[in-house]
């Protein structure tokens, strides 16, 4: 709706006695209470109209804070007047909006002066702006960073401002469109390293042969496997990309031309000088460096320390000729976020490179998460956590219940002393971990959110604000991450270092975050304290020899005494390692390398003992001989066991405050395959595809090219098959099997063929502080909310935790090229209460994320009869209809009443039976053959086969290479009249079929002999199983199992809980339903279908939808008669006559709810 002056005037006229129109609209006099139709205060009239505007703008009530609430805030307690109410912002980087209302036709300056007084108070002005309204004028009062200003807005501008604050500014994000230049960069990056084809920025197609790739042109790399080679190359690339980005940001001298001039035989030496003797060494300590490196800053940080591979392979290098290719490649691009030419690229490329690297490395089930998703999730988990901790603190210092905060933004209204204590005790001490950190997208989002909170608080506290120092502090003290892949941790470190550097005037040394971000297996390893029983004397000598430790400190002195006795308790170990890590974090001198060496030595010592202890624990858990031979120290090392208490002593035993992330999604049925097997399988498919393609080629040249490629692929496959048979890879396969068994035995939520994300949830909660104030938030596959394997975890979630947020984003293409349909779930680590509410939402557009969330009682899902399924309807009204169906007293379920037949001849190798399908031979239908039907051969009610094939009982031996046979009991199944349902479809689709056989992708149902519904016609069930009412029910409960494009899997295990209405077979209603069902089988008609849908709703809820019998009595003329073609025609004609009546009936509430829920798939 468009708001303008006419709207205001019309609303005032509706409340004003007509005799005073002239006084108000012509003479512009101030309205008096007695002039109105119902006497009220003049300012109340303005509030009523303004609130009506908010309702039309669809501003939720929870975004409007009343005056009675505003006045309790500390910052307003010393003010003469309070705002009439406050509108709460949607995103952290916006400001709240205080509303000051004045009577119509009064001098608005009074209100402006009052609003300016509020905004001038830095505690208010930095987080809020004000809108002064008397309906003649709308004046915005705001702080511009220097002074308080005001400007007049139109009505439309005011409404847009309010909408933008509440819902967020409409920034168009097309998540499926990753910048073309970013893809181009990666393709070139990959081709240079591994060989391949790419299009350069001049749009030329470039081919790099494998023999000319960098990975095949390393010198002294014989001892490295492919993974080691990739790690070495990536470490060089990471350093060069980092330097290139800093050069483009004008934070680093442009040394690219100098490096190009260096003779080839010296380039490796010169790069090592740059990395390890310049960037890693303070300016005053550098020696014998070229003039061009004089202005290169000291950056410190692990990026410019040698990796383990570089330490162990001192001569390892890239062939100098190929190093220049890397320089050329990077020079083609400009790392400017807002560049507008075709070579500009956002530094977000690092996250994209990580995602594509995972694809190359195979099988982890990990995906890179878009920044807008990360931002939303971090807000959804961090604000509730801070809110509960801050309110606990406020209660402890005497705040009453009514004075506690209702949302995080109210923190900025507290008095300065209180705010300072909250900042020091709560905000600065936050511990956040991403337990599957990937490229660090969530840590960056969390860092940005914390940066914004820190800056706003420091401004209110009149403390200096230095973005770089705040970022550094956040990275060092608040953010932690673990990942299985070394390349992930390297890129995560790189991105955090870039984040610290971005916006700096001058670069300062990078923090040492090696022990905040760790390589390890999140799921394998101890999460409890371990005492170290044997201490290596080499380590004791090493720690005794260092000079920079304060050995007079009583605690450290006691630890050293304990160490010298050859053992160390967990308490002492924690203190020692924490002390060393804290020294390392802030070390920028010659002690840095010594500290790193000391901590690594301590880690080796810890790991050796911890592994032995943990291995004994595993042997007690896993008793099967099949797996015990794989339970070795090598198993733990190969799978990168990670002992949380020992790796993060600065966090444990207390634990983390918040865990956030994107855990891998991969079914455990695929876990035993190692990457080499996946490669062999992929190569086999590619060879098969190319062989099929070669038969269609006509060009001799093209045919020969294909033959050459096929030959090369065969050779590669043979090499990998040979490699797979070596001891190393056979051991790896064994270890994968042991790991799978370990997960099953060690995690209580693992059930049936589960997804690997299940143990990630369980581990996440184990790592949180146990104080009922901590939170976990994951973006993860939606399947566990409805599938069998998720039953155990769902039950525990609903009974033992408080689900705070559940958002379905499965229709947004969040993860490119991945068949994953994600949800966002945020859970509080506390037992659910009777009044716990879950905020739920479902979105197609990422720009709407977080808007119009519905609050639903958690208890509603805690139902064993529905397998604790957690569903997310599109509309709040859907719950009403769903509950009525779920609790319907006259409903049974499909599972109780029907037998299901599926892949009758062979469940696994069902496709083998396609040999029995051909054109008809034989004589007797049912004995020699059946009509053959596939899932493509029917729609709702009707079988539609253009070229009928037949399924034969027996076939000649030469056509049956596997000597398959069909048992009589399986054959006889299809003699029955069956209700056949498509396995995968956009809607529930059913036909009635007799003497039709199928081998897969169709569920065939038959009523049980003992069912009380045995006397009902299959045409009644046909009507139900095509109805939008039952499809609505299925869609609500099992939307979480949907496939690409909104297709649903109508699996019988899901269908089994769908309700089936018991109906009186003698009733006219029943007879009308089966008559219309028969009609639709013969000829589909929209009006007949609509009438049938309405009759079914009426059958379920006769009091809620009433149908005039006289209007539809024409159906009764066909009772008990065979429905001929003429009868069908008459029925359609009669139904067409009541079309308008049916359309009016379709406006009934339930039918509209059904229609609205279906819209989401469209």
Automatic annotation (TrEMBL):
Q: Which InterPro entries match?
A: DNA_methylase_N6_adenine_CS, MethylTrfase_TaqI-like_dom, N4_N6_ade-DNA_methylase, SAM-dependent_MTases_sf
Its recorded reaction(s) are:
a 2'-deoxyadenosine in DNA + S-adenosyl-L-methionine = an N(6)-methyl-2'-deoxyadenosine in DNA + S-adenosyl-L-homocysteine + H(+)
Pfam (any one): Eco57I
Q: Matching PROSITE patterns, A to Z?
A: N6_MTASE
Query: Where would I find the Type II methyltransferase M.TaqI-like domain in this sequence?
Result: 477-687, 729-815
**Annotated EC:** 2.1.1.72
The protein's name in its UniProt record: site-specific DNA-methyltransferase (adenine-specific)
Q: From the UniProt record, list the coiled-coil ranges.
A: 696-723
Q: Which UniProt keywords apply?
A: Coiled coil, Methyltransferase, S-adenosyl-L-methionine, Transferase
Q: Name one GO molecular function term.
A: site-specific DNA-methyltransferase (adenine-specific) activity
Biological process (GO) annotations held by this record are: DNA modification; methylation
């Amino acid at each position: 709706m468009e708001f303008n002056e006419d709207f205001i005037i019309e609303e005032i006229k509706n409340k004003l006695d007509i005799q005073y129109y002239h006084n108000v609209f012509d003479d512009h006099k101030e309205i008096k209470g007695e002039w109105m139709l119902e006497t009220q205060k003049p300012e109340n009239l303005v509030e009523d109209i303004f609130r009506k505007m908010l309702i039309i703008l669809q501003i939720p009530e929870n975004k409007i804070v009343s005056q009675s609430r505003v006045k309790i805030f500390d910052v307003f307690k010393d003010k003469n007047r309070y705002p009439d109410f406050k509108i709460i912002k949607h995103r952290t980087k916006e400001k709240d909006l205080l509303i000051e209302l004045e009577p119509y036709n009064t001098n608005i300056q009074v209100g402006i002066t009052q609003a300016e007084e509020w905004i001038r108070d830095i505690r208010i002005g930095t987080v809020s702006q004000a809108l002064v309204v008397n309906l003649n004028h709308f004046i915005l009062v705001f702080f511009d960073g220097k002074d308080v200003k005001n400007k007049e807005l139109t009505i439309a501008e005011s409404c847009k401002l309010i909408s933008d604050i509440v819902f967020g500014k409409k920034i168009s994000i097309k998540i499926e469109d990753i910048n073309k230049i970013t893809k181009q960069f990666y393709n070139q990056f990959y081709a240079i390293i591994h060989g391949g084809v790419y299009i350069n920025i001049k749009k030329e197609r470039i081919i790099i042969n494998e023999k000319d790739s960098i990975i095949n042109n390393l010198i002294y790399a014989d001892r490295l496997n492919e993974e080691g080679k990739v790690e070495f190359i990536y470490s060089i690339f990471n350093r060069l990309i980092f330097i290139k980005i800093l050069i483009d940001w004008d934070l680093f001298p442009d040394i690219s031309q100098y490096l190009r001039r260096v003779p080839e035989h010296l380039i490796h030496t010169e790069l090592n000088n740059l990395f390890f003797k310049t960037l890693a060494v303070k300016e005053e300590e550098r020696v014998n460096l070229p003039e061009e490196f004089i202005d290169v800053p000291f950056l410190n940080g692990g990026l410019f320390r040698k990796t383990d591979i570089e330490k162990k392979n001192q001569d390892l290098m890239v062939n100098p000729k190929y190093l220049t290719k890397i320089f050329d490649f990077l020079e083609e691009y400009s790392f400017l976020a807002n560049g507008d030419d075709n070579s500009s690229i956002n530094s977000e490329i690092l996250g994209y490179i990580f995602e594509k690297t995972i694809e190359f490395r195979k099988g982890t089930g990990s995906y890179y998460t878009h920044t807008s998703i990360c931002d939303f999730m971090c807000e959804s988990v961090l604000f509730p956590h801070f809110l509960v901790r801050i309110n606990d603190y406020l209660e402890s210092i005497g705040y009453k219940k009514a004075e506690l905060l209702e949302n995080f933004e109210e923190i900025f209204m507290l008095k300065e002393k209180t705010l300072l204590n909250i900042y020091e005790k709560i905000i600065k001490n936050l511990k956040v971990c991403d337990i599957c950190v990937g490229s660090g997208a969530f840590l960056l989002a969390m860092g940005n959110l914390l940066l914004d909170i820190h800056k706003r608080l420091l401004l209110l506290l009149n403390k200096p604000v230095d973005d770089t120092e705040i970022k550094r502090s956040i990275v060092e003290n608040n953010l932690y991450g673990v990942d299985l892949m070394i390349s992930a941790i390297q890129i995560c470190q790189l991105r955090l270092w870039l984040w610290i550097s971005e916006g700096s005037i001058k670069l300062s040394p990078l923090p040492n975050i090696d022990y905040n971000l760790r390589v390890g297996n999140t799921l394998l390893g101890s999460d409890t304290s371990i005492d170290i029983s044997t201490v290596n004397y080499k380590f004791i000598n090493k720690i005794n020899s260092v000079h920079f430790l304060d050995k007079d400190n009583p605690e450290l002195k006691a630890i050293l005494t304990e160490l010298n006795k050859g053992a160390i308790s967990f308490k002492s170990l924690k203190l020692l390692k924490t002390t060393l890590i804290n020294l390392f974090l802030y070390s920028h001198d010659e002690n840095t390398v010594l500290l790193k060496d000391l901590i690594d030595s301590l880690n080796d010592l810890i790991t050796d003992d911890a592994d032995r202890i943990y291995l004994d624990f595993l042997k007690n858990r896993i008793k099967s001989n099949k797996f015990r031979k794989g339970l070795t120290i090598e198993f733990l090392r190969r799978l990168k066991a990670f002992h949380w208490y020992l790796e993060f002593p600065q966090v444990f035993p207390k634990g983390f405050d918040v865990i956030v992330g994107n855990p891998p999604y991969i079914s455990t049925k695929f876990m035993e395959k190692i990457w080499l097997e996946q490669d062999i399988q992929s190569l086999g498919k590619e060879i098969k595809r190319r062989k099929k393609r070669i038969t269609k080629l006509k060009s001799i040249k093209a045919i020969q090219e294909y033959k050459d490629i096929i030959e090369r692929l065969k050779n590669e496959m043979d090499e990998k098959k040979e490699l797979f048979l070596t001891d190393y890879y056979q051991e790896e396969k064994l270890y994968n099997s042991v790991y799978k068994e370990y997960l099953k035995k060690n995690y209580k939520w693992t059930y049936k063929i589960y997804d690997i994300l299940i143990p990630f949830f369980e581990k996440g909660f184990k790592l949180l502080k146990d104080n009922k104030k901590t939170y976990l938030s994951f973006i993860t596959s939606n399947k566990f909310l409805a599938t069998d394997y998720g039953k155990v975890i769902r039950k525990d979630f609903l009974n033992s935790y408080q689900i705070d947020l559940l958002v379905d984003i499965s229709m947004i293409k969040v993860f490119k090229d991945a068949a994953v349909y994600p949800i966002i779930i945020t859970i509080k680590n506390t037992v659910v209460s009777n009044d716990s509410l879950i905020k739920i939402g479902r979105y197609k557009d990422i720009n709407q994320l977080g808007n119009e969330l519905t609050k639903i009682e958690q208890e509603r899902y805690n139902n064993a009869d529905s397998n604790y399924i957690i569903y997310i309807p599109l509309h709040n009204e859907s719950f009403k209809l769903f509950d009525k169906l779920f609790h319907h007293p006259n409903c049974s379920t499909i599972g109780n009443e029907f037998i299901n037949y599926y892949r009758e001849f062979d469940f696994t190798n069902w496709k083998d039976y396609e040999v029995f399908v051909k054109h008809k031979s034989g004589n007797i239908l049912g004995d020699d053959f059946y009509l053959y039907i596939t899932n493509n051969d029917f729609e709702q009610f009707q079988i539609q086969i253009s070229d009928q094939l037949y399924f034969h009982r027996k076939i000649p031996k030469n056509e049956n290479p596997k000597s398959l046979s069909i048992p009589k009991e399986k054959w006889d199944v299809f003699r029955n009249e069956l209700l056949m349902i498509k396995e995968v479809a956009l809607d529930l689709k059913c036909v009635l079929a007799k003497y039709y056989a199928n081998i897969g992708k169709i569920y065939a149902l038959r009523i049980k002999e003992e069912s009380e519904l045995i006397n009902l016609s299959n045409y009644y069930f046909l009507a139900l199983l095509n109805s939008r009412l039952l499809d609505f029910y299925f869609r609500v409960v099992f939307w979480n199992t949907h496939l690409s494009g909104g297709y649903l899997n109508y699996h019988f295990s899901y269908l089994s809980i769908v309700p089936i209405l018991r109906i009186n077979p003698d009733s006219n209603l029943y007879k009308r339903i089966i008559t219309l069902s028969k009609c639709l089988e013969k000829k589909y008609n929209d009006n007949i279908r609509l009438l049938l849908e309405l009759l079914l709703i009426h059958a379920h809820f006769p009091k809620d939808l009433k149908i005039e019998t006289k209007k539809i009595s024409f159906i009764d003329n066909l009772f008990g008669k065979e429905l001929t073609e003429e009868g069908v025609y008459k029925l359609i004609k009669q139904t067409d006559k009541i079309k308008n009546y049916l359309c009016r009936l379709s406006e009934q509430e339930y039918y509209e709810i059904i229609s609205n829920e279906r819209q989401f798939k469209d």
